[in-house]
TrEMBL record, chain A:
It comes from Mustela putorius furo. Residues 636-645, 687-706, 881-892 have a biased composition (Acidic residues). GO terms for biological process: protein localization to nucleolus. The keyword RNA-binding applies. The gene is NOL8. Residues 426-437, 538-552 have a biased composition (Polar residues). Residues 52-90, 310-337, 389-706, 728-787, 803-909 are annotated as: Disordered. The keyword RNA-binding applies. One of its GO terms (molecular function) is RNA binding. Residues 462-477, 501-512, 554-566, 592-601, 613-626, 673-686, 739-767, 775-786, 817-828, 849-865, 893-909 have a biased composition (Basic and acidic residues). This is Nucleolar protein 8 isoform X4. One of its GO terms (cellular component) is nucleolus.
TrEMBL record, chain B:
GO terms for cellular component: nucleolus. Gene3D superfamilies: 3.10.450.220, PUA domain. Belongs to the NIP7 family. It comes from the Eukaryota. InterPro entries: NIP7_N, Nip7_N_euk, PUA, PUA-like_sf, PUA_sf, Ribosomal_synth_fac_NIP7, UPF0113_PUA. This is 60S ribosome subunit biogenesis protein NIP7 homolog. Keywords: Nucleus, Ribosome biogenesis, RNA-binding. It comes from Mustela putorius furo. It is found in: Nucleus, Nucleolus.
């Protein structure tokens, strides 16, 4: 696992390791000012002896003698429990009883009980402290009860004894209190989001504290503690810069660029790792990385060393006058390797630097090797180009490469450069050259030597020359900048060392000398050299004025030079590309030209391989042309490629054929075949089959219902727990949805829905039968009890016969309709002679069957033996309601019985409804209303009657008068 | 998860009795706000018992967890606590996130006492910085730091009025659970 200081968890782990010599708690987070008095101690959370009191571990001890408690011991003036016998006894005893009752093992004696409690609870306490979650079965309430018991026993005494309760004020806030601190949890359930931040803040402090101590330990020499990271990085950079030149040199000497590159690549990991290690700035990590370096660099370095040792003799002649120095350098490198390890710490580096220039370069060589690739990103175009040139198979001068690498390292940054500048002169030997300068010296002559060999290489070397002066320019500029007041002193190590002025001076000189030597030793013609010389002069010029203006001037010039360089490089690249293109075309053309002769015109099967073999020596385009020329019996490779593309298209997953609906669609498609006209795409995709969705829905609803039921149950339980009728508001939210779901759509196919059907079928049936029954019942004549009847006395018979038959009948009319029998009874006395069939001459019933009526259709008017009718004279005044009565009275009217009686026997008329045709009764009736104009008979009779009546009246009146008179 | 073999228990809903016991405990801390946990407007949440632990889990996660066999399932949703072998419910610190926002009675403790509390100790009056008024004795309280960071659960050992009178060394809040357990009992918290 990689250590990442930016991750807090890593830091936490580190802290955990160092628990043994942990920093005091008070220094970690909160430092509360205060003296040694107990109150401030408490405030700091330092509870010394009393601290143990609140711990659960000792919770059982209160049940023992209170004197045993450390808390009690800590308070000498505490009033013993005996002083408050009643209260304390109650407080102590009652909970104990309770607890012991709950505990499984109850001993006989009370003291044993207490002991038992103590043992168990204390055990429980310890387990809780150790690992209470896993196997802790004790209930918190019991613990609390124990605590309460103890508290009460302790608390009561302390209340009375201690009167400093006012010393510790605390706020009492309302239920809806919110502090000014942004509340994390009160509003939302977000929880610990901010808490984490808070924690991290603490961790920061801890880390900072830790770092501080580390640094104090590690960098005792460093007087300035403010920017340790800066220092380290700067030191590292300096190292890198210095080393880059050396290492590259060693690699170049191998003359196997590929190997060198590989070594570099392998070293790259180590480089980045070491870099991160430096930035971390942890001693621990440094130690770790030291090991890493040892492992990773040895491989590369061994290679280098082996290569360099071999190459040194060869290179000597090449390098010309500088051979001696290079050899010595190379010899030094092994020693430097061993020393490389302790060099990581800044102080070590400083020490190493002070030790000697040769050692430094040797020491830092491996390191540089690893780190150098990291700075490739900073390279300009020119340097890139230079690198490209390294890779070229054409042999290049080692010198140019060296210079190139030098440039790379120099371009890293002015800060690092200044560091580099500062360090070598620290030795005090201005005459001595830095490795870079030395290499320059060594390399500058080289181009001269190699130039005759190859035009191309010289061109490149010229380029490099152009760059190298700029690098020297850099160097010359940096001292200037270091002298400027604006320059950050912390970046330069020299500023910290006591010999600042000297260093800079020396540095100036070295820079100048370096340039001078470079200039002098390179009598190379060309503009590059000219430019370099020009720039050198400029650099020297700028060196002396030491002003901001000049510096900026130099800067601009340099920029200009860089731009020029870039432009040149771009031109070069363009040219090269053109050449390559030309070459390609040329080759292709040549192949085309050559082929007609070489190639067999006829097709030979399997000749592809042959032609390929033939074309093997040629280049890619040629091969292609061969393939093309070989004809197209089989798909050429090109076609195959395109075909494969097509295939890949063909075999891509078509989303419309996914899923169940897609299957349907696929079937359909296969039915149509591959006809383009009937290509099924997503437009034909039906929406997911209903059944599937229904299934899913059913499942869902079932689950939901289950959950809802559960929730309801939970709510019920909650209500019972809270003893409140909550839910009204809460239910409202859930109920509407529930209700909506519960709306039942009547489905007649479902059997359980029969309950929702109204049982309407039975009722109509019943009612029909009932109705019939009712009707029948209604039709059926009510049962008449035989007991109830009118028994007419025999003597009444005579009375009726003589006097009032009519009055009798009128009284009985309501019943006569229904009660035939009675009527018969009634009428019989009046007409004993007549048969039962003609009771009152006419019977009427709605319920009588028609047949019956039909039978007696013959209406026979029979003379009713009316005898002497009392009211004969005024029948019309008898305004009876019943028609029948009228008829009866008509019949009974004794005025014209004689003519009717005569006609009666002959008259047999069919009845129409109640009356027969030409019923006399109707005529009689009409006669009653209107007799006609010419009916004199009646008038005559009336006149006669009125006369007789008048006579009677007078006579009676006279009689009465006569009777009154005598009285 | 501890290396111990746990009894193979399938996840199941709580019985009514279990629900009651648990609700009684939770209601000590959040009172009628319990309703907000049971009937949430933002989705269906339910309680599930798994390995004697009660998990508060959303319907969504519940469905996802159904894909995992019971013996392989270590945890789901948020653990609210566990049932002891005597069938009492013990609240775990993991429930704090859900209970703290709804807490009815709160206790704030001074910075100096925070550490003590987070080591599993009770809160003394000297460490008491603030307390909700009308807190009665043995009321479940949520313990906060003065910076309003929820630190754990406790039970008020004294009512608010009593707290004024007692000795500074008297316990005012009994420790129940604290966030230090995330470190101290890392292996048993799920």
């Amino acid at each position: 696992m990689k250590y990442d200081p930016s991750k807090y968890c890593h830091n936490l782990k580190k802290i955990a390791e160092d628990v043994t010599h942990a920093t005091p708690v008070s220094s970690l987070t909160w430092e509360l000012e205060g003296g040694d008095d107990p109150m401030s101690k408490k405030r700091r959370g330092d509870f010394c002896a009393v601290h143990s009191t609140p711990q659960k571990k000792i919770k059982g001890q209160k049940n023992q003698a209170s004197a045993a408690s450390p808390a009690v011991r800590a308070r000498p003036h505490m009033v013993p429990g005996s002083l408050h016998p009643t209260q304390q006894e109650v407080a102590r005893e009652a909970p104990c009883e309770r607890i012991t009752a709950q505990l499984p093992r109850v001993s006989a004696s009370h003291s044993q009980k207490l002991n038992n409690v103590f043992v168990q609870t204390s055990g429980m306490g310890t387990t809780r402290h150790r690992n209470h979650r896993s196997d802790d079965d004790t209930d918190s309430e019991e613990e609390i009860r124990l605590l309460i018991a103890r508290e009460e026993s302790l608390g009561k005494t302390t209340w009375s004894s201690v009167g400093d309760s006012a010393n510790e004020p605390f706020e009492v806030v309302g239920g809806d209190f919110r502090s000014g601190v942004p509340k994390l949890c009160s509003v939302t359930a977000a929880g610990m989001g901010n808490d984490c931040d808070y924690d991290s803040g603490d961790t920061d402090e801890i880390i900072a504290a830790k770092k501080k101590t580390d640094k104090v330990k590690n960098s005792a020499e460093f007087s300035q503690m403010e920017k340790p990271a800066h220092k380290k990085t700067s030191a590292k950079n300096r190292k890198n810069c210095e080393l880059s030149g050396n290492c590259v040199k060693a690699q170049k000497r191998k003359t196997n660029p590929e190997r060198a590159i590989g070594a570099r690549v392998t070293a790259q990991c180590a480089g980045s790792a070491s870099e991160s290690a430096e930035s971390a700035g942890d001693e621990e990590y440094d130690a770790m990385m030291r090991n890493c370096l040892r492992v990773q660099l040895t491989l590369a370095d061994l290679e280098q060393l082996a290569g360099s040792n071999l190459q040194v003799p060869e290179e000597d002649p090449e390098s010309g006058g500088d051979g001696q120095e290079t050899t010595t350098k190379c010899d030094r490198t092994p020693g430097g390797l061993h020393r490389a390890r302790p060099c990581i710490c800044p102080e070590d580096i400083v020490a190493a630097l002070l030790e000697g220039e040769e050692n430094t370069c040797g020491k830092q060589k491996p390191k540089e090797d690893s780190i150098k690739p990291k700075f490739q990103a900073f390279k300009g175009v020119g340097s890139l180009y230079g690198k490209e040139s390294i890779k070229k198979p054409l042999k290049e001068s080692v010198a140019s490469d060296n210079i190139n690498e030098d440039q790379d390292s120099l371009k890293v940054g002015p800060g690092s450069m200044s560091m580099e500048k500062g360090s070598p002169p620290a030795n005090g030997s201005s005459s001595k050259l830095t490795p870079l300068q030395r290499t320059k010296k060594a390399n500058n002559p080289n181009p001269n030597q190699t130039q005759p060999q190859k035009r191309h290489s010289t061109f490149q070397s010229q380029d490099h020359k152009m760059v190298s002066p700029s690098s020297s320019e850099d160097r010359s500029r940096n001292p200037v900048s270091s002298l400027l007041p604006l320059k950050d002193k912390s970046l330069s190590l020299g500023a910290k060392t006591p010999k600042v002025g000297v260093d800079e001076d020396c540095h100036h000189r070295t820079g100048e000398t370096g340039e001078g030597s470079g200039q002098s030793s390179s009598p190379m013609p060309g503009k590059a050299l000219e430019g370099s010389s020009r720039r050198d002069t400029q650099g020297s010029n700028t060196n002396f004025p030491l002003s901001v203006n000049s510096w900026s001037d130099v800067r601009a010039k340099e920029k200009h030079a860089e731009d020029n360089q870039k432009r040149l490089a771009a031109l070069e690249a363009k040219q090269k590309a053109k050449e390559v293109r030309k070459k390609l075309v040329h080759n292709a053309l040549a192949d085309l030209d050559g082929h007609p002769e070489d190639k067999p015109t006829h097709i030979i099967f399997g000749s592809d391989s042959e032609t390929e073999e033939q074309s093997h020596p040629g280049e890619e385009p040629m091969k292609e042309s061969v393939n093309r020329a070989s004809g197209r019996l089989f798909d050429s490779s090109e076609d195959e490629e395109s075909g494969s593309e097509d295939d890949s298209h063909r075999f891509t997953i078509k989303p419309q054929f996914e899923g169940r609906a897609g299957q349907k669609l696929l079937d359909l498609q296969s039915h149509f075949g591959t006809d383009d006209r009937f290509r099924m795409d997503s437009r034909f995709l039906e929406s997911d089959s209903e059944e599937e969705q229904e299934e899913v829905n059913d499942e869902k609803t079932a689950e939901e219902e289950e959950l809802a039921a559960e929730k309801l149950k939970a709510l019920d339980v909650m209500q019972s727990v809270l003893h409140t009728t909550v839910g009204n508001s809460a239910h409202k939210g859930s109920l509407p949805a529930k209700k909506f779901r519960d709306v039942i759509h009547y489905d007649p196919t479902r059997h359980d829905h029969a309950t929702y059907e109204r049982k309407s079928d039975d009722k109509p049936k019943e009612s029909k039968a009932k109705r019939r029954k009712k009707r029948e019942e209604a039709e059926k004549l009510p049962e008449v009890s035989k007991e109830m009847y009118y028994s007419v006395a025999a003597d009444l018979k005579e009375i009726f016969q003589t006097t009032k038959v009519t009055s009798e009948t009128t009284d009985d009319t309501p019943s006569s309709e229904n009660h035939d029998g009675e009527k018969v009874d009634i009428h019989h006395p009046a007409t004993p002679t007549t048969g039962a069939e003609e009771p009152g001459g006419f019977t009427f019933s709605f319920f009588d069957s028609d047949a019956k009526e039909e039978k007696e259709d013959a209406y026979r008017a029979e003379p009713v033996k009316t005898g002497k009718v009392v009211w004969q004279g005024a029948p019309r005044f008898q305004d009876s309601s019943s028609e029948e009565e009228d008829v009866a009275e008509e019949e009974t009217e004794g005025r014209k019985p004689s003519p009717r009686e005569a006609s009666l026997p002959e008259k047999e008329t069919t009845r129409f409804f109640f009356f027969s045709k030409n019923d006399e009764r109707l005529h009689v009736g009409s006669d009653l209303f209107w007799r006609g104009v010419g009916n004199n008979i009646s008038r005559n009779s009336w006149e006669a009657r009125t006369n007789s009546l008048r006579m009677d009246c007078r006579k009676k009146h006279k009689d009465a008068k006569r009777r009154v008179k005598p009285k | 998860p501890s290396g111990k073999m746990r009894p193979l228990t399938e996840m199941r809903p709580l019985t009514e009795e279990e629900t009651r016991v648990m609700f009684e405990k939770i209601a000590k801390y959040i009172g009628e706000n319990l309703q907000l946990l049971v009937d949430r407007p933002d989705g269906a949440y339910c309680f599930r018992l798994h390995n004697d632990r009660v998990y508060y889990v959303s319907e969504k996660i519940l469905k996802l967890a159904a894909n995992i066999s019971g013996d392989k399932l270590v945890s789901l949703g948020t653990c609210f606590g566990k049932f002891t072998k005597t069938h009492k419910f013990r609240l775990h610190i993991t429930a704090l996130d859900y209970l703290a926002p709804y807490a009815k009675y709160k206790v704030w403790i001074k910075p100096g006492a925070e550490q003590s509390f987070l080591y599993g100790n009770h809160v003394l009056k000297s460490g008491l910085g603030r307390i909700t008024e009308n807190t009665c004795q043995y009321q479940g309280v949520v313990v906060y730091s003065m910076a309003d960071v929820p630190l754990g659960f406790g039970v008020a050992a004294k009512s608010t009025q009593d707290c004024r009178k007692v000795d500074p060394m008297a316990i005012v809040v009994f420790h129940q659970a604290d966030i230090g357990e995330y470190v101290r009992h890392e292996e048993t918290l799920t």
